[in-house]
Structures are given as C-alpha cells and as structure tokens.
Write a structure and sequence with these properties.
- With 380 residues, the chain is α/β, with parallel strands linked by helices.
- It has two domains: 261 residues, Alpha/Beta hydrolase fold, catalytic domain (Rossmann fold, 3-Layer(aba) Sandwich), CATH 3.40.50.1820; 107 residues, no CATH class.
- Helix content is 46%, strand content 17%.
- It contains 17 helices and twelve strands.
- It has an eight-stranded mixed sheet, sandwiched between helices. Strands 7-8 form a two-stranded antiparallel ribbon. A two-stranded antiparallel ribbon has the order 11-12.
- A hairpin with a 2-residue loop joins strand 11 and strand 12.
- Helix 2 crosses helix 17, helix 10 packs antiparallel against helix 11 and helix 10 packs antiparallel against helix 13.
Length: 380
C-alpha cells in the first residue's frame, strides 16, 4: 500500500483508468461503474476523486469491544448506508490502524458502503505476525458479524495484506466464525512460509517445475532477525540478534563482526540462516533454528491445512514483481482452495502491496474491485 508517486501523478493514473475501462463500463453500468470509481479513489491516494465528490465523508471513530472476556479496541469506519461489513487487518506497520495508507484504504472501502472495522493489533505494530493474531482476527470478525447494522443480512468478510493474510485465512477456518465469513480479499499473501523464507534469503522460488530468481527486498531478512530475536533463549542473544537486524536494516554493508563474536551457537544459527544465499542449504539451516521459531512458523503456515473447510469466497491478488512474497505463493494458495470458491488475479506493476499498476493490468485490478463489490452485495 505504499505509494511513492506524487498525488499529481496518481491523479493522472486515475484518469487513465477512466479512459481504459470507460467503454466496458458504458456497456455495464452499476457495479462496474462503481468499481471504476473505487479504483480511481485508491489511485488518488487521499487526493480528490469522483467517488469523494459523489459520497459523503465516512465517520471514523475509535471503539472498544469484547468477545468472551477478551477486550479490544479499534477504529470503525461508517458510511451513510451500509451494504456489508468487513474486518480490515492491519499489515506489518508501526502505525498499525493509524498508518496513513491504511486509513486512506479503509476510507475508500467505507465510501464503497462497507462498514470497516480495523482492530488495533499490538503484535502487527511490532512488525511481527503471531499465532495470537488468529484468535484476535476471529474475535474482531465475530463482533462485527453480530452487529446487524454493520453486516446486513449477514454479509461480512475479511481483507488482509501480506503476512496478515495468513492469520486472516486461519481465522476464517475457526469453527465459531467459519460459516459466517462470506468473502476474503488477500493481497500479496502466502501459502508456505518455508518457501517464502527461501525466497527472502536466496531469491529463488518455483513456478510449476521451473526454478526462478528475483532479487528479494533486503528489508525482509533483517526484519526476520528483529522480530524473532525474542525467541532466543539466551537473553544476550536476544539483544545481539535484534541489534544485528537493526544495524543491517539501517546500512546493508554495516560491519557486524563485533556482534557476531558474542553470539551463542543458537544466535549464529539464525544469522547463518538469514545471510545464506544458496537454495540448497535452506532446509538444513532452517531446521537448525530455535524450536520456538519453528513452532510459530508451523502455527501460522497454510501449507498442509485442509483449506477445503473454508466456506468463504476468496479473492487473491498478487503482483508478478513482488519483492517480499513471490506470486507463486498465491498460485499455490489458489490451488489449495476449492476451485469454486477462489478467484486469482496476478498483475504486473503491483509491488507487494504497493498499488502502482502498469497500464496493461488496470483492467485486471478493475475486475478485482468489481468482484469485491459483488461479494459486498452477496452475488459473488
């Protein structure tokens, strides 16, 4: 969801969307035209758009709610008229629910007549995904779906980006809400965390029987160090591993010999894993990681799960050039889901969750938005 372009350039992109899809929309008014307005509003990145001129500003208010004694807070975005409810799971960002990109996206959804609940999830603000997020997302959805005014006729779903897509999908498998989750939109998500880590450290990923390479975003490997430092059993390792990640995150060529010299074998194991670039060594180096890290990965992994139990209609969106999670993960996830409950959209120009589509793929993005609005209306 990062946007590096200026607002002016994004407005030009929004106009290009209008020109590209206008002929189709002219033949298919209604939801198709609304999808065009929503896509243009996303491209406007908070700037002026036709959707904003046609709709009243949504209300945004902080709320507190509880499920079975577990207390939460979050932001609720309310349009003038609600067609469906959605829990928007924040990504890995220190701003959490207050991240400007997330606020802009939630506001767009509200203008599209979704009641949007954005829970405040502390672990995601600390830039780590935790198995605890599964029950947190399930609770947020449970509360939202039990408010008739926020989920008319039971129409309610989930939206999640990147690594947050895993807990969202796992939450949707939980018995208390499984039958109630009508739809899920997952952008840049994963299927097998082991394959994702192979890509983050070596750049290699597999599509069918073909091994491919793309330079991964270095941020990912250092974030892995920082977020997993707390799993080190030795207190000294916890400090050193976090410092290693922070130092290399600030400067990829920063010297680290002083820190490495003080690590225990367990600390060296995680360092050796994140700095390895040989795909043939990934499996043994992964197996040598602290048990707590491996257990958490297993708890968050989608690979090996019975995804046929999912009742929701799932929309998967992924960029071919994703430098954090390869598009092959959404391909694999689509293959694991029931064929009649999943739609996969692969696009060029979508950098992980950064919406910067190239001109040829705006058509596909429009189709995603149109399908999402169809889910809102209960006709997906």
């Amino acid at each position: 969801m990062r946007r590096r372009k200026t607002t002016g350039r994004l407005r030009i992109k929004a106009m290009a969307v209008l020109l590209l899809v206008a002929a189709v929309v002219a033949c298919a008014p209604g939801r198709g035209y609304e999808a065009l307005l929503v896509l243009a509003d996303i491209a406007a990145a908070g700037g002026d758009s036709r959707l904003q001129r046609r709709t009243a500003p949504p209300q945004r208010r902080t709320i507190e709610f509880a499920v079975e004694g577990r207390a939460y807070n979050g932001d609720l975005y309310l349009p003038a008229a609600v067609r469906a409810g959605v829990v928007l799971v924040p990504g890995l960002a220190e701003g959490g629910k207050d991240d400007p990109r997330l606020v802009a996206f939630a506001t767009t959804l509200a203008r599209a007549r979704f009641a949007v609940l954005v829970p405040d999830l502390a672990e995601l603000r600390r830039l780590r995904v935790s198995p605890d997020n599964i029950i947190e997302v399930a609770d947020a959805f449970s509360w939202l779906s039990e408010q008739p005014e926020l989920s008319p006729a039971g129409r309610a779903g989930l939206v999640a980006f990147s690594y947050a897509a895993g807990p969202a999908l796992l939450a949707a498998l939980e018995e208390p809400i499984r039958e109630r989750v009508r739809f899920i939109l997952a952008v840049g998500g994963y299927h097998d965390l082991r394959r994702v880590l192979k890509f983050l450290t070596t750049g290699f990923y597999r599509v069918a029987d073909e091994e491919r390479y793309r330079k991964p975003e270095a941020y990912g490997r250092w974030a892995f160090l920082i977020t997993n430092a707390e799993h080190m059993s030795d207190p000294r390792d916890r400090t050193l591993v976090a410092r290693l990640g922070e130092r290399r995150q600030a400067d990829a060529d920063a010297p680290v010999d002083d820190l490495l010299a003080e690590l225990t074998p367990a600390g060296l194991a995680i360092w050796n894993f994140v700095t390895n670039t040989d795909p043939g060594r990934v499996a043994p180096l992964l197996a040598a990681l602290p048990e707590e890290i491996l257990e958490e990965m297993t708890a968050l992994n989608l690979a090996g799960r019975d995804m046929s139990r999912l009742r929701a209609q799932v929309l998967l969106l992924h960029g071919y050039e994703d430098p954090m999670i390869p598009f092959s993960e959404s391909l694999a996830l689509a293959g694991a889901l029931p064929e009649d409950r999943v739609q996969l959209f692969l696009v060029h120009g979508l950098q992980h969750v950064d919406i910067e589509p190239g001109l040829p793929d705006r058509w596909r993005l429009w189709r995603v938005v149109r399908a999402f609005l169809a889910a809102r209306d209960g006709v997906l």
